[in-house]
Design a protein that fits this description.
The complex is a heterodimer of chains A (about 250) and B (about 280). Chain A is an alpha/beta fold. Helices cover about 35% and strands about 25% of the residues of chain A. Chain A contains 10 helices and 10 strands. In chain A, the strands form 2 sheets. A 6-stranded mixed beta sheet of chain A has the order 6-7-8-3-9-10, with helices on both faces. In chain A, strand 7, helix 6 (about 170-185) and strand 8 form a beta-alpha-beta unit. The radius of gyration of chain A is 18 Å and the shape is globular. The two termini of chain A are about 35 Å apart. The relative contact order of chain A is 0.18. The model of chain A has no long low-confidence stretch (mean pLDDT about 90). In chain B, helix 4 (about 65-85) packs across helix 10 (about 170-190) and helix 12 (about 215-240) crosses helix 13 (about 245-265). Chain B is globular and about 70 Å long. The longest helix of chain B is centred in the N-terminal third of the chain and has 26 residues, at about 10-35. Chain B has 14 helices and no strands. Chain B has a single domain (about 1-285), classed as ABC transporter involved in vitamin B12 uptake, BtuC, CATH 1.10.3470.10. With about 280 residues, chain B is mainly α. Chain B starts with a helix and ends with a helix. Classes of the chains: A alpha/beta (about 250), B mainly alpha (about 280). At the A-B interface, loops of A face helix 8, helix 9 and helix 12 of B.
Chain lengths: ~250, ~280
């Protein structure tokens, strides 16, 4: 059997004693496109940040390709939520993508021609090369998200963690992003996406992590998207889910 | 042109000019990172917080550089400690800590009964720059510029997207305190020229003007330095010619440049923005 891409055992995370993640255990094989879904405040982003070792865990064990997160950090590309970024920052689109090459550059080494060409190639892949000299704030939401995906591609990572990549994004950008994520999975990369609702979940992902502080369900999409399981996660919000035809 | 003749003639004025130019450069460079990280208030705090360190250094008879860096960094750590370990917000924590340090500094200096020194430390007296001060400024300048050059990549990424930096393993907290240390050193270098109270203006105003002129960080750094240098020279001229406090004239010069840029900057200036709106509306009629 192949080595697991991500293996989480009995993870507990809390903020000042308030539990945000309770005893989550997950194991993801390489080549999967996994959605993390759940109601507001379910700890979706917290789980992602804990998986990146950005916030301390109270208990549990996280292994990536059988190693600790610290050992394989540079192989994990992270795309933050759009509103975590200062879009007025004096940086051009190409330079923002170039940041993706930084994890693989040594201290004191600058990105050279080789890195710049690679960054431009990544920008082409998301269809944004004609905007390379623009300041990032001049782009639409969908274009900005594509640029950040290009940055993640530039990192040549094995794992891709995306936090709410489809918020404020136009339909065509959303399609481009999903297509690229699916391509990455075909190449054997593993992609984890925090997603805010259940709509299109079965089109986008092949596995789902349904979370509401505890792990409600984890598995293939069609196993997870079942009325009784969804109800358990969303509780009162279920009436609204029914209307959406889930 | 009496000013230029005077510079040729008087050694003290040459020292003043060289020191102000160096201060203009390093304040501009560090100022860019300070404003992009949203730490303008922190810049103000740290510059005030060096006062007790300077006072104690005088008391002990050691170079004020060491005391100033020590009290500046201790205050930065105290600010971070309070805001991270309580519900107190960051700006409140800054307000508590830097005023405390500043107040302690005033008491110590008053006890030392040297109120003239206090006046100079607070408001600067560039015309009294000694050779030793000039060399300290030069050394600080070299360290600051080398640090920014060598760690440009790390400073850029932690300023723009700190989470990404942390995700791939950068010591973001260490980088923060490293920048605070550079900030303290810049403050010390600026003590003689603009004084503690107005250092923050030299950090923020040229960088803010540069921010309105370009969309590239390296360009912003060069422009901020340039604006800092022009302000310093202009300020020194007015200070010398009209016998005014050098800190005040330098800061007013920087502010004048900022106002011009704010109005006339090609891309982000108020005037062109208004003209673009007008043109657009006219085209729709």
């Amino acid at each position: 059997m192949e080595k697991e891409a991500i293996s989480i055992k009995d993870l507990h995370v809390s903020y000042y004693g308030n539990e945000a993640i309770k005893g989550v255990s997950i194991s993801v094989q390489p080549g999967n496109l996994v959605g993390i879904i759940g109601p507001n405040g379910a700890g979706k982003s917290t789980l992602l940040k804990a998986m990146l070792n950005l916030i301390p865990k109270d208990k549990g064990d996280i292994k990536v390709f059988g190693k600790t997160v610290k050992e394989v950090r540079k192989k994990i590309a992270y795309v933050p939520q759009r509103n975590d970024i200062d879009w007025d920052f004096p940086i051009t689109v190409l330079d923002a993508v170039l940041l993706g090459t930084y994890p693989n550059l040594q201290l004191f080494r600058r990105p050279k021609k080789k890195e710049k060409e690679w960054a431009l190639e990544c920008l082409q892949r998301v269809g944004m090369e004609e905007f390379s000299k623009r300041q990032i704030g001049e782009l639409s939401g969908g274009q900005q998200q594509r640029v950040f995906l290009a940055r993640a591609l530039a990192q040549k990572a094995e794992l891709f963690y995306l936090d709410e990549p489809f918020v404020g994004v136009d339909a065509s950008s959303e399609e481009t992003i999903v297509t690229i994520l699916k391509e990455l999975c075909l190449q054997g990369k593993t992609v984890i996406v925090v997603h805010h609702d259940l709509s299109k979940a079965n089109d986008y992902f092949n596995q789902l992590i349904l979370l509401n502080k505890e792990l409600i369900s984890f598995g293939e999409v069609n196993e997870v998207i079942q009325a009784d399981i969804i109800e358990k996660a969303y509780k009162g919000q279920f009436a609204f889910m029914k209307e959406m035809g889930v | 042109m009496a000013f230029i003749e005077a510079i040729m003639q008087y050694g003290f004025l040459q020292k003043a000019l060289l020191t102000s130019i160096m201060v203009g450069v390093i304040c501009g460079v560090i100022g860019c990172f300070i404003i992009l990280r949203g730490m303008a208030l922190m810049g103000d705090a740290i510059s005030h917080a060096v006062l007790p360190g300077v006072a104690i250094s005088y008391m002990l008879g050691i170079n004020f550089f060491f005391g100033a860096v020590f009290s500046g960094v201790v205050t930065a750590i105290a600010i971070g400690f309070v805001s991270q370990n309580s519900r107190i917000k960051h700006d409140t924590s800054i307000g508590i800590m830097f005023t405390a340090a500043f107040a302690a500094g005033i008491i110590i200096i008053t006890l030392l009964k040297s109120s003239t020194d206090l006046y100079h430390i607070l408001f600067g007296n560039v015309l009294a720059v000694r050779s030793s001060d000039m060399w300290i400024t030069l050394a600080i300048g070299v360290v600051v510029l080398a640090a920014v050059y060598l760690f440009y990549k790390e400073l850029l990424i932690t300023s723009f997207d700190e989470t990404m930096g942390a995700a791939y393993g950068l010591p973001v907290r260490l980088i923060h305190y490293f920048l605070m240390t550079l900030l303290t050193m810049v403050t010390v270098a600026s003590l003689q020229t603009v004084g503690i109270v107005l250092v923050v203006a030299m950090l923020i105003t040229p960088a803010a003007a540069a921010y309105l002129l370009t969309d590239r960080l390296w360009m912003m750094i060069f422009l901020a330095s340039g604006i800092g240098v022009i302000s310093s020279i202009a300020g020194l001229y007015f200070s010398f010619t009209y016998n005014l406090a050098s800190g005040a004239t330098i800061v007013i010069s920087a502010t004048a440049i900022f106002v011009l840029v704010f109005l006339f900057s090609p891309k982000h200036g108020l005037l062109w923005k208004m003209l673009r709106v007008k043109k657009k509306r006219a085209s729709l009629i």
